[in-house]
């Protein structure tokens, strides 16, 4: 068993974090009892690398337009890209559309409960499959997102930040700390995630308000600073990602075909602009329909 249980038995650890969650959890629409499995899946796609406050309006608009997977599958993938708006990383919209098509064609329009079936859907990886199975179907799975990994790194391992990629050791920790019953495990998964989002944050953690303050291995070690590889910052200004966003914004607003001349207006540097446009085409986010004419995918 991992180190933290030498200080706090696992059942008490579960109770401590879950009690904190029940008193402090945010009221989010995908957590309500009437949220459908499809609603949970949509939220999980949108929340990857995007803050909750930006997701909330997009989530509501998405489900109003496409309340079921079949509704989205019946529409063009370009419409998913258009509705994705400024959430960032728009390939997620194409992946969610592809998942909706697979759910409609292979699962009679119902998000599958089986973890393996979820994992087999286009665009659904290890984290998303576990999250949907846990949060939508109350199953027992280790759910390891960035917030959970950071809580475990500090509270269990005693380091400020986890490795840049999920390790086998982290998976063992998550499995060892997973409550025995499915219902408790599902609540534990979201509770630890919320703790990382609200208290055990990447910058300026609110340690004084943390329910694990006395048990935290990082605290007991004197909060040693991170000594691993340099953590990559997320720059945006002047990057190809910014250019891609500007090009996509023109195509989203056009509701039809767009000329090369119109796209040329959004960024002055021609080599970077061409590279960004070529990347959008290669990713399936933009379709060339004639020389110098583009549109969202149909």
Secondary structure elements and pairings:
Blueprint: H1 4-7, H2 10-24, H3 37-47, H4 52-65, H5 69-73, H6 77-84, H7 91-106, H8 115-119, H9 126-137, H10 146-157, H11 168-176, H12 182-198, H13 217-220, H14 240-254, E1 258-259, H15 260-264, H16 270-282, E2 287-290, E3 293-295
Antiparallel strand pairs: 1-3, 2-3
Notable traits:
single chain, 298 residues, mainly alpha, three-stranded antiparallel β-sheet, 3 strands
Structural commentary:
There is one protein chain. The protein has 298 residues and is mostly helical. The protein has 16 helices and three strands. It has helices spanning 4-7, 10-24, 37-47, 52-65, 69-73, 77-84, 91-106, 115-119, 126-137, 146-157, 168-176, 182-198, 217-220, 240-254, 260-264, 270-282; strands at 258-259, 287-290, 293-295. A three-stranded antiparallel beta sheet has the order 1-3-2. β2 (287-290) and β3 (293-295) form a beta hairpin. α3 (37-47) crosses α4, α10 crosses α12 (182-198) and α14 (240-254) crosses α16 (270-282). The longest helix is centred in the middle third of the chain and has 17 residues, at 182-198. It is globular and about 65 Å long. The mean pLDDT is 94.
């Amino acid at each position: 068993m991992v180190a933290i249980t030498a200080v706090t038995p696992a059942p008490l650890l579960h109770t401590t974090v879950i009690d904190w969650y029940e008193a402090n959890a945010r009221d989010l629409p995908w957590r309500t009892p009437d949220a459908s499995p499809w609603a949970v899946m949509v939220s999980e796609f949108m929340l990857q690398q995007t803050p909750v406050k930006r997701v909330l309006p997009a989530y509501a608009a998405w489900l109003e337009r496409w309340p079921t997977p079949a509704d989205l599958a019946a529409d063009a993938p370009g419409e998913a890209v258009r509705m994705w708006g400024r959430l960032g990383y728009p390939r997620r919209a194409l992946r969610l559309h592809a998942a909706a098509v697979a759910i409609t064609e292979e699962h009679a329009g119902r998000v599958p409960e089986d973890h393996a079936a979820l994992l087999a859907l286009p665009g659904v990886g290890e984290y998303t499959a576990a999250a949907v199975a846990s949060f939508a179907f109350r199953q027992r799975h280790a759910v390891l997102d960035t917030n959970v990994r950071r809580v475990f790194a500090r509270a269990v391992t005693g380091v400020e930040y986890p490795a840049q990629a999920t390790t086998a050791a982290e998976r063992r920790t998550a499995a060892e700390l997973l409550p025995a019953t499915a219902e408790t495990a599902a609540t534990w998964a979201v509770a630890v995630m919320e703790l990382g989002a609200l208290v055990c944050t990447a910058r300026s953690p609110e340690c004084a308000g943390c329910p694990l303050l006395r048990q935290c291995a990082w605290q007991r070690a004197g909060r040693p600073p991170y000594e691993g590889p340099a953590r990559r910052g997320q720059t945006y200004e002047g990057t190809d990602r910014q250019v891609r966003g500007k090009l996509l914004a023109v195509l989203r607003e056009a509701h039809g075909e767009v000329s090369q001349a119109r796209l040329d207006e959004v960024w002055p540097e021609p080599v970077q602009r061409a590279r960004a446009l070529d990347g959008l085409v290669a990713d399936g986010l933009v379709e060339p329909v004639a020389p110098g004419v583009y549109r969202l995918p149909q």
